[in-house]
Design a protein that fits this description.
globular; mainly alpha
Length: about 500
């Protein structure tokens, strides 16, 4: 009885989806799920995650409880294990998984930090602020930009940028700001679902080789459905008129556009290295960090001559604003941008990966896999993963699925990726974008203001998954038709 209870707890925590007709491949483990150490490991993870959920109320960074939890779980593994060599190999395998993803994310965050420091996002915000868009245009523009920027800049950064625009332009329109924040969260999560760079879950799937880079774009149409269904419903309630135009000028710092180009070159290097050379994506990202370091060196060395040239031109034109801007310029420092990366997120990711990996080595992932594959239908479980991802962070959900490595079809890997990506929009605490906006738009965007639109968000979630299944069916029928046609010829 006690063992069954722990199986159910583990199932709820890991939210393991069922996407195959057969059971997941066996993963080497201790088979210690019915030991006191195994029960303690699940209990430690549950407590650590409850503390993570209460991060905002406790004012405790989310990385701290999972780091301690991971340490305790692997200590328990060491106590139970009778083969230190196998235990070391299991730990090293999980740590290697984290290291590749951590370095990949670190480079991406460094580029985003560099673009922020060069005021690229501030410039985009200022452009939108001074255009004097109507409320209806502002609602759609922030949503569409969130959808298309998040695949490159990640959903968290994109959501914060769009939220800053709405707060600046629509000051005093509390209901409109809340509605825009809901729309931005849904759009950013939907946009991040069809790109390896849009969310950590999609990155994990790509790094694991389950879905190739360009195959993620098969999720573009379902992701658009997920964004457009609730957006169309909410747009009916957007107030008429437009806010007052605000004049705001922002100077892009030197090298801003070239850093954008280098970021795209870095992505191309990662994709080409993976597609044509069989190298892991982190290879291309680390090369891209080298691009940025050399460009930073160029900016530092050429700064005096560049400032002297601009100062001469500004003095001739008596341009006081340019002279003031030149006086505020500081050299580009790559290591300051590395330091500004989201280290709490990276350490949280380490803790989650090692916690789930430790529980998997105890045997819980295999146990939960068998439990669910026998009792839950394949497609039905796919719809449930996103709902659970809205409550439990999608990082441990996706990592648990990858750890089990079920023998599922390519279409089902895409389906689980889509569900984990867009399911977090169902609740504001279900995604990094939602949690961040509750802080950035405190008093405007709240749990209840998001919950007010839950029915249409859920409708968009269901519609997006059905859209993916429908596209898969149409593609299957097309392949059958072309095969039959070829046979007749």
């Amino acid at each position: 009885m006690l063992r069954s209870i722990f199986v159910c707890i583990a199932a709820a925590l890991f939210s393991v989806p069922v996407y195959a007709s057969g059971l997941a491949e066996a993963i080497p483990h201790l088979g210690a799920t019915d030991t006191l150490a195994g029960y303690l490991a699940v209990f430690v993870f549950a407590i650590a995650y409850l503390v993570v959920v209460g991060e905002e109320k406790l004012q405790l960074r989310k990385s701290k409880p999972v780091l301690i939890g991971a340490g305790i779980i692997w200590m328990l593994v060491g106590i139970v294990s009778t083969d230190p060599t196998a235990t070391k190999a299991a730990f090293s395998r999980n740590f290697l998984d984290f290291s590749e993803l951590m370095l990949f994310l670190l480079v991406a965050m460094t580029y985003i930090s560099a673009l922020e420091e060069r005021r690229v996002f501030e410039g985009l915000r200022a452009w939108m602020v001074q255009k004097g868009f109507s409320y209806q245009t502002l609602f759609w523009l922030t949503g569409i930009l969130a959808f298309f920027i998040s695949p490159i800049a990640d959903n968290l950064t994109t959501a914060l940028l769009m939220c800053a625009v709405v707060l600046k332009v629509a000051e005093g329109q509390d209901r409109f700001i809340a509605m825009c924040c809901v729309n931005i969260v849904v759009a950013a999560n939907a946009g991040g679902a069809f790109s390896p760079f849009g969310d950590i879950t999609t990155l994990m799937v790509w790094q694991a080789g389950k879905v190739e880079f360009f195959e993620f774009f098969d999720l573009l149409l379902p992701s658009m459905v997920n964004f457009l269904v609730p957006a169309l419903a909410m747009s009916v309630f957007v107030p008429k008129g437009k806010p007052a135009s605000i004049s705001e000028d922002v100077f892009l710092k030197r090298g801003a556009k070239r850093i954008m180009g280098l970021f795209l070159l870095t992505i191309a290097t990662a994709v080409c290295g993976h597609q044509f050379l069989g190298l892991p994506p982190v290879f291309g990202m680390m090369v891209g960090l080298g691009y940025l370091q050399f460009f930073g060196y160029f900016l530092r060395m050429s700064l005096p001559s560049s400032l002297a040239k601009k100062r001469t031109i500004a003095e001739q034109k008596a341009d006081k604003e340019t002279l003031q801007y030149i006086g505020s310029v500081v050299p580009f420092d790559i290591f300051k941008n590395v330091a500004r990366a989201e280290w709490d997120t990276l350490l949280f990711f380490y803790g989650v990966v090692m916690c789930v990996g430790g529980l998997g080595y105890f045997g819980y992932l295999q146990l939960v896999s068998v439990f669910l594959f026998e009792d839950v239908g394949a497609t039905g479980a796919a719809f449930g993963i996103g709902v659970i991802s809205a409550i439990v962070d999608n990082i441990p959900v996706m990592f648990a699925v990858l750890e089990m490595d079920p023998a599922i079809s390519h279409g089902h890997w895409l389906l689980v990726t889509l569900a984990a990506g867009v399911g977090g929009s169902l609740l504001p605490v279900g995604s990094a974008a939602g949690v961040a906006l509750m802080g950035a738009a405190r008093g405007y965007y709240t749990f209840m203001s998001h919950l007010r639109w839950l029915p249409v968000i859920f409708l968009g979630y269901v519609a997006s998954l059905y859209a993916h299944l429908w596209l898969g069916d149409m593609l299957g029928l097309f392949e059958v038709f072309t095969t039959s046609l070829s046979a007749l010829n």
